[in-house]
Amino acid sequence: MTGYRNVIEPKGIWRERQHTGKMTMSNTHLCPQLRVNQDEPMEEYLAHLEEAQAGEEDQAALGLLLGPGLPCKEQMRTNVINEIMSTERDYIKHLKDICEGYIKQCRKRTDMFTEEQLRTIFGNIEEIYRFQRKFLKGLEKKFNKEQPHLSEIGCCFLEHQTDFQIYSEYCNNHPNACVQLSKLMKVNKYVFFFEACRLLQKMIDISLDGFLLTPVQKICKYPLQLAELLKYTNPQHRDYKDVEAALNAMKNVARLINERKRRLENIDKIAQWQSSIEDWEGEDVLSRSSDLIFSGELTKLSQPQAKSQQRMFFLFDHQMVYCKKDLLRRDMLYYKGRVDMDHMEVMDVEDGKEKDFNISVKNALKLRSLAGDEVHLLCAKKPEQKQRWLRAFADERRQVQHDRETGFSLTEVQKKQAMLNVSSNEGCFVSSSAVTRPYYDFLLRQKHPSLPTALPQQQVFMLAEPKRKTSTFWHNIGRLTPFKK
User: Fold this and answer.
1) Following DSSP, what letter does each residue of 27-62 receive, concatenated?
2) Which residues form a coiled coil (predicted)?
């Protein structure tokens, strides 16, 4: 599974579901659908989208009038603007109902809920609610009530593009929320309690699990709405450049959420890998790292003796761990040390005599601490292996910089839970592989508050990037260090 995929269904199906207040789902019409199997290539989806867009543009070119005195394109832009404003107001109402109707009541019942349970079920939805109210105020200021097609709302998305990243935490937590909620709903008192909350708040007849899906749905829908808005915005319109930039910004937000989801799915594997290493010393890998960049075997030379040692190296973000293979059991690894990559510079070494170690080397690279008190000389067997390691070290620095710019980091709860998952199959959280199947079964069963939409000629649109090729890194680790726990 490699990414979120958002599916917007044909207009007729949406209208029927909007009318009934229910939503049935199939494997091909789940909206939104998180990280589903992407067997059908992206090109086919985009081809369908382009065909639909071409048909709409041909129709617009005829100069048909859809409203009194407004050309087709301006009327369509009016429709899309009105749709964005309407769904945004509805969404705020949903968030308010969750925060005031459910969370507020749950906090009063300390005999039924712990703070940790509530954090698992509701995630950071209160933070999202505060942000979305601010965002809606900005939209209202830019909304032209008399002539909606003249509204200039693109700047609102650009102004808050970094704020939308808070959805990453919510989307990553949502599978755990579904599992926790499904456990509680097996007990009648919780079923009755949640229904009482809904009635007390005078909320529509949708279960809590349906309400909790709306933020996931909403962040997937923004690029779709902006794509429609751009399509019906003339290049001469004052809002055109901002809408175009906003569309790219929201696509980037979706990609960022995708990448963070992938990173979080890796942390259980990293914890499991660490547990298989004999004689582990020092802090956990997860205390600083969350992704394996590259791994392989190198010859290591360290001062002052310059003794040659064969070691397995595992390059994570921020650090590199090296291990020794067991002499008899080559599939067993012993921890031998680590290198702090945040305080190292990587140097390409030419074949020949190396001045610091005073020895002849081939296919070598050097790690030198910024303070100059630590030097490691590493030699690969082949020139191409050396070049691959040099690229890996560059990738590690770029990823660290990207994480710093986007604010990505693991929470203490996530780190602790990953280590607990290794030693125990029970707990209020479960590993990502265990979450996946119940999570989607859960989505298929639930009633679902589909935010109303009137976007013309809605078509399938894949938000995620093409399917990521399966990495061999974890396969290699599994072969070298079988998980014993």
Assistant:
1) TT--SSB-S----S-HHHHHHHHHHHHHHHHHHHHT
2) none
How far apart, in whole angstroms, are the C-alpha atoms of residue 300 and residue 296? 12
Query: Which CATH number describes the domain made up of 284-406?
Result: 2.30.29.30
φ/ψ of residue 314, rounded to 5: -125, 110
Q: Is 427 left (phi over 0), alpha (psi -120 to 50) or beta?
A: left
- Do domains 72-267 and 284-406 share one topology? The answer is no
Burial of 289 (0-12, 13-18, 19+ CB in 10 A): buried
What digits encode the pLDDT tens for the residues 296-305? 999 998 766 6
DSSP string, 66-127: EETTEEHHHHHHHHHHHHHHHHHHHHHHHHHIIIIIIIHHHHH-TTT--HHHHHHHHTTHHH
Report the number of secondary-structure helices (H) and strands (E) in the chain.
Answer: 15, 11
CATH number assigned to the domain covering 72-267: 1.20.900.10
Strands 65-67, 70-71: pairing is antiparallel
Domain limits, the chain: 72-267, 284-406
Q: Which helix (H) or strand (E) holds 319?
A: strand 319-325
Q: Token pair for residue 195?
A: 């229904």
Question: Residue 452 has what DSSP assignment?
Answer: P
C-alpha 366/C-alpha 378 separation (Å) is 6
The candidate with the shortest Cα–Cα distance to 339, out of 370, 376, 380, is: 376
Does the predicted model carry a pTM greater than 0.70? Answer: no
Give, rounded to a whole angstrom, the gap between the first and last alpha carbons of the chain.
25
Lowest mean pLDDT among 16-25, 168-177, 192-201, 405-414: 16-25
Amino acid identity for residue 368 in this structure? R
Nearest to 209 by CA among 27, 14, 445: 445
